[in-house]
Design brief:
The complex is a heterodimer of chains A (283) and B (290).
Chain A (H helix, E strand, L loop, with lengths): L1 H21 L7 H7 L8 E7 L4 H14 L3 E7 L2 H10 L4 E4 L10 E16 L6 E2 L1 H8 L17 E5 L4 H9 L10 E3 L2 H10 L3 E6 L7 E3 L1 E2 L6 H6 L5 E9 L6 H11 L1 H9 L6
Parallel strand pairs in A: 1-2, 1-3, 5-10, 6-7, 6-8
Antiparallel strand pairs in A: 3-11, 4-8, 4-9, 4-11
Chain B lengths: L1 H43 L1 H6 L3 E2 L6 E2 L2 H32 L2 H16 L2 H20 L7 H25 L3 H9 L4 H12 L1 H17 L2 H6 L16 H8 L5 H36 L1
Antiparallel strand pairs in B: 1-2
Classes of the chains: A alpha/beta (283), B mainly alpha (290).
Chain lengths: 283, 290
């Protein structure tokens, strides 16, 4: 488990390096923020987090930065799934439950802190004339019910649906938002956002999904239900293929100082750039 | 005198230790694969696991059938052999019998270099060049297919086939060929009726080595085959045993992860079988020479 975590941390770091090359940084770099932030009293202890596998990158990046700032604190993360994360927070087996879905009405006695929003762009090849699809159209494409672009307003050509491998957070997010869980007929299953974008860029008839931050300009992110996929539309909620990354805590239980500080850190301005590099947008 | 003895002793212990490392590694890996591969097979059921046609590892009711992976692996390897062996064999005949020493010494390093190219580079070239090419030439909607994997693997196994076959052809006694030529056979007749049959066991060993390389390749295949767990179709997206492990391992948990280990075990058994065949062939080859 630890190995996998450290490998993924390393991967996140590597991605972060590349992200830094292209992304236009509007926020100040974390280092600059850190120097201006008030130096907190030395925190120590363990912050246990448990839940959503989709949040792995975000949580790994956040906890790495947090642990770098507070060397005596250890942030642990168990990738179990959103449901298990909410249960863990309810039962107190973890300090913070991680959930990539919002709480259901029957899940009471819990506090939700939205740390990030995950916008999933629907990407097409640049040569494709289709610019707008509804969620229903996307669902029928994913399920293999619509197999020709002419049925959704494009040219007479077969649709090539490209997605991510089983277990990927982006795949889980896409499939649950578009409501096509376990029903997708993929033409290619690739293991990274970059590979999906490259595959779509290489095939005129391809459609795929990718985290908004990973889209770049080799493919076009289409409108969904008439709304373009941008940071702004994801933030104001008009772009529908999105979900919240939540930190769940139990009401009425005093969090440890370290856990409190971790949540504060995750929602601070300083964390914005880190979350962005990990592929999501800070709320 | 004594000091020399001590050095001898110490060195022999070091030699034994180094010799043991490989054995320990093999035994350790075998034991680990069996221990970690068996639980999922037990839980899923051997027939359901090996002959199930649907792999849906993260569905709410997960299915773990690896028949598509096994068949895809076999088809891809077989296809690569079908294309790679004739080319590799003729290439080794060319190097051993036909090319002038000067030309052979230029071609041989090129073939050896082919063996040294990292598989990810094969994958990259396949993905950027071969996949779009297949899409255009065959008019299929996506070029990431079993066919692309076959072509890439066929090129990747060439060096194993060529170098082993060439050695075998070179060690065919000159007198056989001279006798054939003296009896009036042409050079081509001599090659196909005398040299190749005489080098048979070495050539077969080269082919088996190629099979081993093809079935164990993951990276290059992952980049060109599309990775969907379909039953194999020549122009369809496929997932092989190796790529099934590689593509899902990073996020896997629970039974899914255990099942990936079980796939590893199946692959391990395949490779073991191939190695046993290879060893028997190589031993048989020595008998022929004697």
């Amino acid at each position: 488990m630890k190995k996998i975590l450290s490998i993924s941390l390393a991967a996140v770091m590597c991605l972060a390096l590349f992200a830094g090359c292209t992304a236009k940084e509007t926020k100040a770099s974390p280092a600059a923020d850190a120097s201006t932030a008030p130096t907190a009293a030395t925190l120590s202890g363990t912050v246990s987090t448990n839940g959503s596998t989709s949040m792995e990158k975000v949580v790994a990046a956040l906890s790495e930065a947090f642990m770098a700032k507070n060397p005596d604190v250890v942030v642990t993360y168990d990738a179990t799934g959103s449901g298990a994360g909410i249960t863990a927070a309810t039962e107190g087996t973890a300090d913070i439950g991680l959930s990539s879905r919002d709480l259901k009405t029957e899940e009471t006695g819990l506090d939700t802190t939205i740390v990030a929003i995950d916008g999933i762009a629907i990407v097409l090849n640049k040569a494709n004339t289709v610019t707008d699809l509804t969620i229903e159209q996307i669902a029928s494409i994913a399920k293999g019910e619509v197999t020709n672009w002419k049925d959704v307003g494009g040219a007479d050509a077969p649709i090539v649906f490209v997605g991510r491998e089983a277990g990927s957070g982006t795949r889980d997010g896409f499939e649950s938002i578009v409501k096509v869980k376990d029903a997708c007929k993929y033409e290619q299953e690739l293991t990274s956002t970059g590979a999906v974008v490259a595959a779509v860029a290489a095939n005129e008839n391809a459609i795929g999904y990718a985290s908004l931050s990973g889209v770049g300009d080799t493919v076009s992110a289409i409108k969904v239900g008439g709304v373009a996929c941008t940071e702004a539309t994801v933030l104001d909620g008009t772009y529908k293929v999105q979900r919240n990354f939540n930190m769940i805590t139990k009401q009425g239980t005093e969090l440890s100082a370290a856990a409190k500080a971790f949540i504060e850190f995750a929602t601070s301005d300083e964390a914005g750039a880190i979350i962005k590099k990990a592929g999501a947008i800070q709320k | 005198m004594k000091a020399r003895n001590i050095t001898e002793r110490i060195m022999s212990v070091i030699f034994i230790f180094c010799g043991m490392i490989s054995i320990v590694a093999v035994v350790g890996i075998s034991a680990y694969m069996i221990i970690s591969g068996l639980p999922a097979i037990k839980e899923i059921g051997l027939t359901k696991f090996l002959f199930g046609q649907v792999w849906k590892s993260t569905a709410s009711e997960p299915l773990f059938g690896i028949l598509p992976f096994i068949l895809s692996s076999i088809f891809a390897t077989f296809g690569a052999i079908l294309i790679g062996v004739p080319i590799g064999l003729l290439m080794s005949v060319f190097l051993s019998k036909i090319a002038s020493p000067k030309l052979a010494s230029a071609v041989r390093p090129a073939v050896e270099l082919l063996a040294g190219i990292p598989s990810v580079v094969y994958g990259l070239v396949g993905m950027i060049v071969l996949v779009p090419l297949i899409m255009d030439v065959f008019g299929v909607k996506s070029g990431s297919t079993l066919f692309a994997a076959i072509i890439v693997l066929a090129i990747m196994i060439l060096p194993s086939i060529v170098s082993v076959s060439e050695n075998a052809l070179n060690s065919v006694p000159k007198k056989y060929e001279e006798a054939s030529l003296a009896l009036g056979a042409t050079q081509i007749e001599t090659i196909f009726k005398v040299s190749i049959p005489a080098a048979k066991s070495g050539i077969t060993a080269g082919i088996v080595l190629g099979i081993g390389r093809a079935i164990g390749e993951a990276m290059a295949v992952m980049m060109v085959a599309g990775n969907v767990a379909n039953m194999p179709k020549l122009f369809g997206s496929v997932r092989l045993l190796t790529t099934a492990i590689a593509s899902e391992m990073s996020y896997a948990g629970g039974l899914q992860k255990q099942a990936l280990f079980s796939i590893g075990l199946v692959l391990f058994v395949f490779i073991m079988i191939i190695n046993v065949i290879l060893n028997t062939l190589l031993k048989g080859g020595h008998k022929d020479a004697n």
